[in-house]
Amino acid sequence: MTRDIDAAAVGWSTDRMQNFDHIFVGGGHNALVAAAYLSRAGHEVLVIDRNDRVGGFVRSAELAPGVIYDPFSSAVPLFTSGPAWRDLGPDLQKQGLEILQPEFPTGVSLEDGTTAVFPRDPVALAEEADRLHPGDSSAVAEIISALGPSTGAAFGLMGQDLTSDAARATLAQLVSDGKGWSEVAELALDSARSAVSEIESPAMRSLFGSWPAHVSHGPDDAGGAFWTTIFPLGFTGGGMPIPQGGIGKLAEALAGIVSEHGGVIQTGATVTRIRVADGRAVGVQLSDGSAYRARNSVVASVNPDQLYEWLLAETQVPEHILAQARRYRYGTGLFQLHLATSAPIPWADKRFERIGQPFLTDSLDGLSLHVAQARAGLLPAWPTMTIDSPTAHDATRAPAGTSVLRIQVTDVPTRPRGDAAGLITTDGTWNDEVVNRYADRVLEVVERHIPGLTATIVTRTVVTPATLAAFNPNSGPGDPYGGAQDLAQSFALRPIAAAPGHRTFVPNLYVLGAGTWPGAGVSGNSGYIVAQYLLDS
Description:
By secondary structure, the chain is α/β, with parallel strands linked by helices. It is built from 19 helices and 22 strands.
């Protein structure tokens, strides 16, 4: 039931203001997913975002005239395999969204010239594993089938608030077999290195063991084994899809659904306070003094430090929640090198011309060293990375003869205090010299795998942790995952143990985004979760 709000009692500076059923603070893709569900159902929705357009890290831009690149996120396998795509897919397609699918989702190139691809067909994958080392197909099959009959339930949790009664019941069944802890519980605590230990081929071991780094889990981190299974399962079922014309088309299509159904999107605006009256969230105040009332909910796409320390600064926040919010931790950063080249990637293995996002690495051990150096605040001496070229699958992204490439290095220090190779002088910032010299190092590694690539570069631009921090407050000092995703800030403990899930201690106030379960990645799942709560209320 909605109630009228006394603006003066709340302390708003404006006596007359517009009312909406739901107000979203931040317009990342999860917020847009929830807003699309609600607006489709006839709710009056307002989405407020500080940037020039909504979408957060889901955006595209021009690298050069007519050359479209994705500065941050790129592929959408988590989205197209999730419930938001199932429900909103037809509407998104009506908005013009088209999804393209590379033949091979991923693969790996080692410096000794060994390569491997990941076919979606299980038989072809088994053949690729045995080609590299006879008998490895059995070890690969064990990783992919590690969840066994629990696979459906485990994937179902990706679209559930883990604090709900239904999710708690599922979790209890997953982690215990009635006699002791289950194999699923072991996966949730084990490392990626342990999970791939039965694979003999260094290339296939690196391929499977490296993907957890894309959710901030190094090869030796607890919890990595779970993602070592989840990623290949996702690739088998959903591939490595990309939106035609750039990932920004996804944000545009989601926003199109909201607008088509009467929702309002306001960009270039910053919310400074979430207003609480009579113990419930009732609206928002903006930096320009304007304000909006919320009849049913305020949904904040922010991390707990921003929510409890800043947006609710005028509300009495329980001390145990506030204390944990202040201790909310951010992980390592991300370094991306975006290139326009005068030719396609000159892969020696021609299968890679049809690949989505392969790794370039010297070994799984090399990735472990890379992660350890980054966490010690050092620029990794010889980084592992992924590389993708959307123009190999999407001719609309650049004029004929031009290719677009993204080289992504996960796990770099947000504030580099040294260089593991001892060659780059650092001062704790990503200054121009550090950026350019590290970009050169990344290209040196790339050249080992793809000789001749650097000679084709026409334009380059770099994304660093400093870029992320300036663009999106949810990245803190430059963490692309919206906060560390170790066990203490993951699963049912995300975003913080004192206030887990997507509800808050304030009635009518919800949270979503990478800081909530299921964490980082373009999945739309937290938006789906919050939308279901609000549609059912």
